[in-house]
Amino acid sequence: MAKMDEKTWDDKSIEITKTAMDQRIKTGTSYRGWQHTVKLLFQNGIPFKELKVAEVGCGTGTFSLTFGLLGASVTLIDFNQNVLDRTKKIYDLYDCRARFIRANCLEPASSEISGDFDLVISGGLAEHFTGEDRERCILYPRLLLKEGGIAFIGVPNMYSPFYQWIRFFRKLTGTWGIELEVPFSNTELKRLAAKAGFKNFYVIGNAPLPRDLLVYSCGFVSALIDTLPDTFQKRLKMWKSGIKIPERLVSSAQEDIKSFCANKVESIRQNAHKMPGDFWADRFSAGLILFAFN
C-alpha cells in the first residue's frame, strides 16, 4: 500500500495560473471520459445547476471545475490540506464556490458526505494502492453516491504500450519518481466494482490510440530532457519561457472559459447519438475509465 503521508501526496510543482488552468480545462474536456460523463448526465436528466459533484483525491480539481463553471455544486476531498488550500486558490481565480473537505479515502465516509452526490470523480488515485486499500479506493466513491448516482474512476491501463514504454524508460533512467503506481486491467476494475457493490458498471478507454501516441511521444521528449544535467534543463526552460506567442493567437486563447465549457456541453447534447465506441481505445488506451452506478 501507499502510505497516507502528506509529503507523499504534495506536489508543489503544480502550476496554478489561470492561463495554465484554462489549458487544463480545454484539454480535459477533449477526452472521451469527460465527454461520456456529460452524455450520462444528460441521460439522467439532471440540470447542471442541480448537479452535486464530489472529487476524491482532487489535486487541482480540474474535472469538477468544468461542472462548477456550469452551476454545479462542487465538493473537493483530499487527504492533504496543502492540496486543498492550493485548489481553493484555483477556484477563487474563477469565482467558483466549492466545499473543501480533508478526508482519508481508506476510511469510512463521514455522515457529512455519505450518499450526497449525483457524480463522484476519482482520477489518478487508486493506482497508488495495493491489496485491500486498492479495494477501498473503488468502494469510497460508491459510499458518497446517491441512489442512481454515477462514479467516474480513472486509472492507468496496464495493457497500454504507450504507458508501459514511458514507465520503462523513466525507470531505466531513474526519472520515474513515483514510489508506488500499479496500473489496472479492465478485468480488475470490473471485479473491484462488483466487490464494492455497484449495481452496473463498464470500462472505456480515455483516448483514441492516435492521440495517446501523440501525447506520449511528447512525454518521451520530456523524459529525455529529464535525463540531462540540471544546467541544460534550466536553459531549455528559459528558452521555452522566452517564446513569444503571436498576438492573433493570444486573443483567441482568451476565450471565456465558461462559454467554452457551455459550448462543449451543448455540442455533446446535440451529437450524443453520434458518439461511437472505440474497440482499440477501450483495450489499449493509456487511461481506463470505470463508469459505475449506485
Q: In what order do the strands lie side by side in the largest sheet? A: 3-2-1-4-5-7-6
- Estimate the strand proportion: 15-25%
Q: Please give the alpha-carbon distance between the first and last residues.
A: 26 Å
Query: Could you list the spans in which at least 5 consecutive residues all have pLDDT below 50?
Result: 247-254
Considering DSSP H and I runs of 4 or more, what fraction of the residues is helical?
A: 40-55%
Please summarize the sheet with the most strands: 7 strands, mixed
The structure class reads alpha/beta
What does the average pLDDT come to? 89
Instruction: Provide a count of the helices.
Output: 12
Radius of gyration: 19 Å
Task: Sketch the topology as an H/E string, one letter per element.
Answer: HHEHEHEEHEHHEHHHHHE
Number of strands: 7
The shape is globular
Notes on the protein architecture:
- It is a single chain.
- The protein has a 7-stranded mixed sheet, with helices on both faces.
- 47% of the residues lie in helices and 16% in strands.
- Strand 1 (52-56), helix 3 and strand 2 (73-78) form a beta-alpha-beta unit.
- With 294 residues, it is of the alpha/beta class.
- It has helices at 18-28, 32-44, 62-68, 81-93, 131-144, 161-173, 186-196, 209-226, 230-241, 247-253, 257-271, 281-284; strands at residues 52-56, 73-78, 99-102, 117-123, 145-156, 200-205, 287-293.
- The protein is globular and about 50 Å long.
- The chain is built from 12 helices and 7 strands.
- Helix 6 runs parallel beside helix 8 (209-226).
